[in-house]
Design goal:
The chain contains 16 helices and nine strands. It has 369 residues and is of the alpha/beta class. It folds into three domains: 78 residues, Orthogonal Bundle (Helicase, Ruva Protein, domain 3), CATH 1.10.8; 156 residues, P-loop containing nucleotide triphosphate hydrolases (Rossmann fold, 3-Layer(aba) Sandwich), CATH 3.40.50.300; 75 residues, Helicase, Ruva Protein, domain 3, CATH 1.10.8.
């Protein structure tokens, strides 16, 4: 804006429509479809609310367009059109280039272990209830999960959204950065605004230390520091039901301001899976690939997988299945053992890093087990 008129201008922040605005837009489109296009509308009041929930995060124009398309495609507007709306919303959010969207209906992850985390989540979920609001309690803000790669941090983010029956939004912080001045901060505000408009929702920030960590240098003109400050302010003041799940591999790169109480509700440490967790992981992945766990010598497999992460166990199952297909024979314990013993786990290749992380987390963070 020209400097001569900059001080005379008034700025308005036009946020995405809330549920009341979307509900009014739905009613208007439904009435138009009934009278002008003779569309058959088969929606109960509670189903109308589900339709509105599916359109959260859209502009009013996008909501009207996707609703009209769903109705005109087959001349009907039913509960079955919710899937079409969700599919279109997924496309719109991904086209925005900042957030990835995983609808609740597409989230079918399974996780083993994490007993302490599951117990904490069961208690924290009460914070979204009307009883908590009646006591003037704010909904939980979020958690930080630290640990070595492949131990289920990303899986936990998806599982939390599924357990709480919320959509999952993934913030790829690398997409925030733009070469033009001011655009990165604008992208951050846009991402936060979209997440808040879709609340209640889970916002997943993967490898937060790579995007909002290491703010001690000014090689980027202070951009990382400004984004980090904006994130801290939002975490401190947010009132919308957006639960943040941040994951990190290198805790040393996370600024201490982010670790103090009040930013995240709790910080969890994910270690390598123990005996019981390895058994659960093996059963999940064998079953997922249409293998009966009872056909395998699980005590032997549990012994040889000691020191392996969940991702490494999954990869061993997949590699063994490929070998079994190549040899034209069914998968058995011997093939699995050969693949497992042929791998070098992170507990060996990054032994010093794992020891350092365990020492740091021992008295500071809560173990997920």
């Amino acid at each position: 804006m020209p400097r001569e008129i900059e001080h005379d201008a008034v700025f308005y922040d036009l946020k995405l429509p809330d549920r009341d605005e979307l509900f009014q837009a739905v009613r208007e489109v439904v009435q138009t479809m009934k009278h002008k296009h003779r569309t058959v509308v088969e929606l109960q009041p509670e189903e109308m609310q589900a339709l509105v929930q599916a359109m959260t995060g859209m502009t009013l124009k996008q909501a009207r367009q996707v609703l009209a398309y769903a109705a005109l495609d087959d001349g009907k507007l039913t509960m079955g059109d919710v899937d079409r709306i969700l599919h279109r919303k997924t496309q719109l959010i991904r086209a925005g280039g900042i957030l990835d969207y995983l609808p609740l209906e597409d989230n079918r992850v399974e996780w083993g272990g994490f007993a302490n985390l599951k117990q904490w989540l069961a208690r924290a979920q009460v914070g979204f209830s009307p009883a908590a609001k009646a006591l003037n309690l704010s909904p939980p803000k979020g958690i930080l999960i630290v640990g070595i790669q492949g131990c289920g941090k990303s899986l936990a983010a998806k599982a939390i959204a599924r357990e709480w029956k919320m959509p999952l939004l993934k913030l790829d912080a690398g997409r925030l950065y733009d070469k033009y001045v001011g655009e990165s901060e604008k992208n951050f505000r846009k991402a936060i605004s979209l997440a808040e408009s879709m609340s209640p929702a889970v916002l997943w920030i993967d490898e937060i230390e790579k995007s909002l960590g290491a703010t001690g240098t000014d090689t980027d003109g202070g951009l990382s520091r400004r984004l980090f400050g904006s994130f801290l302010t939002w975490m401190q003041e947010k009132s919308q039901e957006v639960f943040v799940v941040a994951t990190a591999n290198d805790i040393s790169q996370i600024p201490p301001e982010l670790l103090r109480k009040g930013r995240f509700d709790e910080i969890f440490y994910v270690d390598l899976p123990d005996l019981q967790e390895r058994g659960a992981i093996l059963r999940i992945h064998l079953t997922l690939h249409k293998q009966d766990p009872r056909d395998f010598d699980l005590p032997t497999l549990l012994q040889v997988t000691e020191g392996y992460s969940g991702a490494e166990i999954e990869q061993a199952v997949i590699a063994a299945l490929y070998r079994a297909l190549y040899l034209e024979k069914p998968l058995d314990t011997d093939l699995l053992v050969q693949e497992i013993q042929g791998m070098i786990p992170l507990s060996v290749s990054r032994k010093e890093h794992l020891h350092q992380l365990r020492t740091l987390a021992q008295d500071r963070f809560i173990n997920t087990r």
